[in-house]
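Exercise: predict the structure of this protein bound to adenosine-5'-diphosphate.
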Amino acid sequence: MPTLHLPAPVGEECTVSSFRERGRPLLGHMQQTPLTIDSIFRYVERHHGDKTIATNSPTGVVRTTYSEWALRTRKLGGVLDTLGISADGRVGTFAWNSARHLELYFAAPGTGRVLHTLNIRLFPEQLTYIANHAEDEVIFVDRSVLPLLWPLIDTMTTVRQVVVMEDGGQADIPADDRILDYEELLAAASPVDFHVEDENRAASMCYTSGTTGNPKGVVYTHRSTFLHTMSVVQPNVFGLSERDVAMPVVPMFHANAWGIAHAAPAVGAGLVFPGPVMAPQGIADLIVDEGVTFTAGVPTIWQGVLPLLAGREHTLRDIGCGGSAVPAALSEAYREQVGLPILQAWGMTETHPVASSARLASRYADADDATKAAQRSRAGVPPLGVEIRIVEAGTTDTLAWDDDATGELQVRGPWCAQDYYRPDSGVELSTVDGWMKTGDVAAIDVHGSIRIADRTKDLIKSGGEWISSVELENAIMSHPAVKEAAVIGIPHPRWDERPLACVVVKEGQTVTPAEIIAHLEPLVAKWWLPDAVEFVDEVPKTSVGKFSKKDLRSRFAEYRPGS
Ligand code: ADP
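Solution:
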């Protein structure tokens, strides 16, 4: 008899039910309404038209309502028709977070086109590669970043038009027939109806930098976006409702702004966008002045905002954070100085991106502060819809959920990608048995809560055993004089690799390498202690604000302790 291995806590072997199908099964009698992005659009247009969308700019906050936004979005659909964009043409955006960007978020998929959000911080060669690979037909660009895009335009072989959006930037606009003005196009356009029938139609795409090779394109469907939206508004995840004012600091070009740009309209929450004003002071002031209740961004953003928000009155109820490990010390500092800890989430561009969240479970309500902090520093549990497992590298052998065994984290669910868009040969996202490989190494506890140990490529291999760079960083960052710390492996003749800690000291503070090591001694195993501590001015960041270990590794490629 076939058996199934179920993970802890079930732990028992179950037999497969022996029911037999006789003919056609009884089907349900429910309507088959497609799960589409335009249904989110119609919902907010009809039911929450009076709510506000505020966008910051160098000259102040610009306000609109969902009603005004909806009419403009319908007109933008008309513009895409007038511009002659193909039925499933890729509509590129090169823009900050703004109400206009949100118009594109809905008008492109609403008319069957595919929104392609380009990361404004990528290198020129990567931008050219991505625009050509996706075959963008038009790119909508904020005026302040036009100088980054325009010099590349002749290398982007499929782009016919560039539509400039005024964001308060002063950059010169070259005299060229291919350049059009957003507001002029909109003023001349007629509103259109949105009616996507096939929920499996591509809605948007986003490229992930990945570890090796070329950037890889993830193509989201209307259905995956709708279901991800339904998931992130759940109380266990971001818990958004009509009573919220949401501010995605995470860029709209970074994995759908973690779903917030769809989720806020889907529940009628007000929206606040930072626009090009991304300095920590601007973010802190917006939170206070606009009555923001929910916000989200990568750890480096919250690191910068902390001293500017500490002690001020605010209306925040959640600060979402992910994209890389959230240092426990950062979350605790928020709890003490801002009045609420950070809400950690885990995910990838390939998972839409939210695939788990670490909202404190009620079983820990009476636990001590240290236990609560430890729970919050995990990646947390997946929402309904996402399944997880850890496996022995390169196999489909699942590992126990005992919080000790570590293996590759794999996920499965309706908003997890099956494969990449036209991948390079050899790039396989899925396992033979249909799970998505994440490239993250994790342990899972008995309640199914994920603890990310590291990214596979960042683990440090010492004497055949693995050292988690994330755990070391967390421990170093709990030193009061440390602002940031990144740990990389450096070659070692005997041990293969040994950890090197690159540490940024807080302004006005001092600390020695010996003091850092002494701080680590009670926190980690002896053989994990870094061989060297180097002080750096700042940890290099990737295009989406994460620690760039790749850059650190090349900077310290020749480094030997004591040299
Ligand atoms: P990129 O590969 O360009 O960084 P993504 O933004 O899709 O693209 O990054 C996904 C990766 O970010 C995950 O595979 C994981 O390594 C890391 N990550 C995301 N959230 C967390 C988290 N809460 N803790 C630790 N790592 C995280």
